User: Fold these one by one.
Assistant:
Number 1:
Amino acid sequence: MWPPLLSLRKSWAGARPCSRCCRIRRSAISARLSSARNKKGEAWMDERMVVRIYRWGEEGEEPVFAFFPEEDGNDDGGRDYLLPEGYWVDSEDGAPFVRGESSACILHSHNGLPVLVDEKKKRAFLLERDRKIERMRERAGLTRADLAVALGTSQQEVFRWERYEVEAGTALLGRIARILGCKTEELI
């Protein structure tokens, strides 16, 4: 098990990472959200980068977060998070880490959520999940009310799915994907 304070750059210095546990989802790392527009031609998201972060650890323990899956498969499969502006994913010897303008950053855990710490600037950011349903809804040019009517539910329920207050099941994600004109995998 990794220590609670995970500094990928320091932990992997000089190590030759294996291809399985250190792979980086290129699509997530290189995704620049600024080029996408909705039907009205408006930018639908800000220019922050999306990165997949894996949660390691047993149930009931304080989790450890990393940019790659745990070797024995004891992780959550990864979730996509938005990095703050001015931060991006870099790689040294195949080991991924987040870099700011001044230096490499580390991941902490706070109340079970990932926190990006920039020690050089003395700043910490509680990372926010990539709101895929909201992003795809805006890309399709629909309002929350439009999607709620199409699904036969309330705007409040749609809001809760978009903000991950309630996890939408796969059958529901399939219905949402059909309405938004995308694949179910794009919402997971």
Note: The chain is about 25% helix and 20% strand.
Number 2:
Amino acid sequence: MSTDRKDIMTYDIYVQMVEGYNEQVRDLLAEDKTDNKLEIRSCNDDGLSLPNATLCSVTSTSDVLTLMKLGEVNHAVSCTALNNRSRHCHR
């Protein structure tokens, strides 16, 4: 951002991290790990939303990386017939 415009421009950046796993959408940044399943809702513009997904404010790339590490810890891992630690999901 240009230095002469920094006093008139403000912005907020937020991060969400979710995964689709076993036909469920889970919030990877939820504080309550027992209640992290999300409901998908339709939007007026033919889109989808996850209204209860955790929304974290960030101010630096370090904040984003910290949240990504937290999400990775909460990421679903389960066994399959071919692999003891399958990590197949859609993020």
Note: Residues 27 and 35 are 9 Å apart (CA to CA).
Number 3:
Amino acid sequence: QVVYARTSLMVSEELPQILQRCYNPPRRSAKGHGARPAGARQVLLDFARSCISDTIDQEMKPSAGLFLSLPD
């Protein structure tokens, strides 16, 4: 049952909105002018950097041989 719930969330139209709210949560109240809650901005940034780094590594591995220097 958890597998179905996870799959449902991953393909839902609400997921981008949920992630956006975690990245940039609304203020605590409409009247308050205090600081925004911390949310998960840093966690999401770290995750995104990790995903990008992994993708770059995977895409560069096939061409790594082209960048090797010839022995002297």
Note: The helical segments are 2-10, 15-23, 41-60.
Number 4:
Amino acid sequence: LDMSGIERDDPIKDYEKIRQELSSYGASLEERPEIIVGTKTDLPQCAENVEKAKAFFSREGRIFMAISSVTGDGVDSLLYETAALVAQARRAIVPKAKKAVKVYKLRESEEPGIERTGKAWKVTGAKIERIVRMTDLLNEEAIDHLRLRLERLGVDERLEKAGAVEVASSVNGQIMPPVMGAAAFLMVEYIGISYVEVIKHAFLPALISYIALVYIVHLEAVKAGMTGLQSSNPPRPFVRKMIGFLTGLILLMALSFGVYYGLGWLKPILGDNALLVISLALAVVYVGLLWLGSRYPALEMDDPDSPVLTLPQTRPTVLSGLHFILPVVVLIWCLMVERLSPGLSAFWATVLMIFIILTQRPLSAMFRGSSKLGSDIYHGLDDLWQGLVTGARNMIGIGIATATAGIIVGAVSQTGVGLVLADLVEILSMGNLMLMLILTAVLSLILGMGLPTTANYIVVSALLAPVIVTLGQQNGLIVPLIAVHLFVFYFGIMADVTPPVGLASFAAAAVSGGDPIRTGFQAFYYSLRTAALPFLFIFNTDLLLIDVSFAHGVLIFIVATVAMLIFAAGTQGWLIVKSRWYESVLLLLVAFTLFRPGFWMDLAHDPYQSVPPAQIAQALDRVDEGSNLRMQIRGLDAIGEPRTFYLLVPVPDGANGEERLQELGLELIQDGDRTLVDLVTYGSLAADLGFDFDQEIVEILAPVDRWAKEWMWIPGLLVFVLIIGLQWSRRRPSEPATLPGGSAHV
């Protein structure tokens, strides 16, 4: 009871109201022992209420204790009194254990089913239900025995897997464009490329990671013998489904092209009136979508306590909320077509969202013929207010975290701790490139612990991205800056999964009822595909769609998706049936081959030919325009320390090697057998690349003609077909196929 009198004047009336509510909830609650606790008793104005309460409850024969959470007065006494009453109540209601408990040994049956019902999880299964029926639920030993039996049946493991899926999907949401937890907007500033390029490079890895997570859930469902919910849609032949899907896709593409080119044609004609006309057209589309959704009954809130037996119908569900996609369309349009700043784009999307929140209820009710204008407007205003309050509260944590992370970034830039980290990784990795990347990934996990997405990216990009760039150049690893930033960002985000911090794992365990630490380990196991991706796109930047054509990009998407599904099957130990250990190893090898075909091609044929530095003009003359030379450079760093590093030099336009060298802006001299940089033209390509006076060119590596690395996909796919054949021969005739897209399981 609040003794301060700030919210209510009379704590006795509060007590009587609580007793009345308990009585109406269940008569047996009135018989339970109780302790009345008065709080905030350290405040001066509480003395009168405390004395009044002591006198009242003393007459009633009830226990009253006054405590203060500020000073700690009375807290220990309250704990002791509570423990005594709990022990007394337990002895009163729990009978003594029976002398003999008969244990029924049941034959093994199917795994238990785990189903979410409201705020709890429902465990079903014939064996589970029989065990519960035979358990004396008033006996402590019997309940403990039941708990052990449920653990042996794998109920705990299933709950942890349910929570792990939630963790893995939430982490994937942080790496999926267009927002990426606001990190995408920071990458624009930090890397110096456009927002469209950030989205293009980050999209494919995030998409295939999501597809693999869906497939992992599918495999877990297959292994558990689970089936999907019954669809409430009218049955349709597969051909009609495909025709409907393709028709919708073609219409959407045609609409997108029409809007894109139509607005591009109208904006110059309309001039200053373009914004007004586009706003009116958007309002017409919004009203039309509301009218389309109003042709179906309004969706009702689900009862959280009732089980879900069938899936809702697709058409009414989609059409009833289709207008909510308009702010997302406006956001993406402003960012990727109009090329507005992220802040201005978010502003226009938010303005449209506010308009929708205020008007959707009155308009939908009017179209359905059941309008209550005053009530609908009030509910719209209330929705807007609640949204603004929630948004402001969420931004508090982000703002504080970003400001705090700014302190770390400032400390790094002023103290040079980043150089110390680079030295630490260099010493521990001993020049090994893969070990350097692994150490950087571990440090990203450590630095990202407990940080929200935005602050996470700021910290890991400031501290660890320069480490990969610096040490990579020294060891011949030259990758685009976006690949480096995505590498550290992925592992910084993985800190939300990995124990012991794993904030996302703790949150998911609270929902699923599983153990947080084991949920975290299971989630990390599910997220192995996300942890493998950064290593893959560091060595194969095609996965980031860097310098690839549209057709090549489509091919990479298809092959990368297949590779990620094969990787998921290998880590889960299941493809069509349970995989044998060597089949899982081969599946992982196939996935690696599809992701990184250049590894095997490099073993078969060296991709570069060493050219003496004195013959740089001949090397530039032999290679094609637009290709790259790799040059090993020896010189001094910014503080005068000697260092050796690699530069990737694009071959400029020119009729011969001498012209290309001149176009590069580089003049060289020979000092004995050494080739030194004599002059770097200001503002030239060589100056931008980092060439400087008196640097020595140690080695030049020129690309050679060889087979395309994609030829290595063929043996990898042949091995995959062989594994399918082996598992298909072990498949029982009654079992459904479990390849992606070939199963009725969900």
Note: Residues 608-705 form one domain.
